[in-house]
Amino acid sequence: MSGLEVLGVAASTLALALGVVVVLVVRAHRRQTAQLQAAIDVLAADVKAAQRPLKETAPEPAEPSGRTLVVGEVVWTPDGRSVVVPTTSQVIDATLGRPLVRAAVLGHGIRRALRAEHRDRVRSMMRREFHRRRKLRLRAGRRAARLAIVRDDQGFGGLEDTGRGEAVS
User: Which residues, 6+ apart, have CB-to-CB distance to 76 below 8 Å?
Assistant: First the structure.
């Protein structure tokens, strides 16, 4: 057998083995899917059986509050707890409630900021800060002028004034 024939036989054997593995995996997947579908059907039947008594015996409110009592779907978890799925109106109320609160807070802040007393207080704070900064700039300029070494260009003995009342030669 030549090397090319050996390579062909090896490739076909590998392809056959790969095909067998794929068939086994697909069968196992289908078997698991069928088992899971059967489990889902059993759980759905349990949920439907559990919902019937709850919908029939929905508690009536003692005092009519003007709002209708909506009983959502009950979903049973595997550990035995029941979870009530919120209705569409409850989801919408919760979703729109938060932005509505944020808009109310923003509106209150804008109204407060536009009041005359608040504007006057902010204006006076800005004026005080402006004057304080100007004083600091002037003070820094005077200090820099005092500390600057001034050369005597007029020939008074070549002494330099340090700004501290002493002459340096």
Answer: 43, 46, 47, 50, 82, 83
Q: What region, left, alpha or beta, does residue 94 occupy, with left being phi > 0 and alpha being psi -120 to 50 degrees?
A: alpha
Cα–Cα distance, 141 to 136 (Å, whole number): 9
Residue 149 and residue 163: Cα distance in Å, rounded? 7
CA angle centred on 39, ends 36 and 43, rounded to 5°: 140
Final residue belonging to a domain, choices 47, 79, 111: 79
Contact 138, 145 (CB under 8 A): no
Q: What is the pLDDT of residues 78-97, one digit of tens each?
A: 887 888 888 888 877 777 77
Whether residue 157 is contained in a domain is answered as no
Q: What is the pTM of this model?
A: 0.29
Rounded Cα gap, residues 164 and 149, in angstroms: 10
